[in-house]
Amino acid sequence: MKIIKRNNETKYVLLELLAVAFLAAGGIFVKLSSLTPVSTGFYRVLFSLPLLLPLAFRGLRILTKKDVLILFLAGVFLAGDVALWNLSFSYTSVANANLLTNLTPFTVIPVSYFLFREKIPKLFLAGAAVTLIGVFVLLGGKISPLRSNYFGDFLAFSASFFYAVFILISYRLRDRYESSVIMFVSGFGSALALGVTSVLTEGIQIPHGAEQLWPLLGLTLCLQVIGHNLLAHCQGKLSVNLSSIVCLCQPVIASLYSYFIFSEVLSLREVLGIAIVIAGVYLVKAQYSNKIKK
Prior knowledge:
The two termini are 18 Å apart. It is globular, with a radius of gyration of 18 Å. The chain has helices spanning 10-24, 26-32, 37-46, 48-56, 65-88, 94-101, 105-115, 124-139, 150-173, 179-202, 209-234, 240-246, 250-261, 268-286. It is mainly alpha-helical.
């Protein structure tokens, strides 16, 4: 099996940050959607398939039956993430959901170490800890540890495990396939899982008019077509452990959106949290050499 050499270049860290910036917009569109949570996720994936097909068409020719099944399974795990994350907004705060859903490093790092033999650099865990502390400092004033939020917090935290499995599967398959192929084929697994779940739990819902369609199209473009697709592309260039830490920047970017779009004030504590996250990601990135190993 061909193994891609991931050189962890800074330009791909920046490119993943761009992907995370698109993913961070997801919560806004989910809150704006008038459809129920699982149905919202279903249409987000369904609308992406015709948009991803032209990008994935060439790569579909080399797909094996085994990898189609694996990608379909990856899509089911992504569907679990989408459904749980969307549903969590109904029971907990946006800050809680953004934090807990992005705790994928707790799954990705140990699994990649034992399963993929991914080496953990000397100060990697220290940098990861600094990044996580920064996220908690940033969201400390917004996180609501209330009993009424516990169910939503549980949903968001559970979503992180589904998301981590999807990341790990797509990371390994990036050795053989382009990101658009991964997102297109896995999309069928996601659409089927979300479609069946939405019908069984929420009934059949069909969006009508621009008011119902534009949040769904926003989710489709920002998350499926650009965000996840770009993130999967970067998985062919970055270590999965480094990539998972960069994803922790999503709450930071969401806070910046709130500042610029909704004119929310950033407190000194939040600015400090952002600075700590940046320092943590920089420390993690510094553990990886940009030199091509021959």
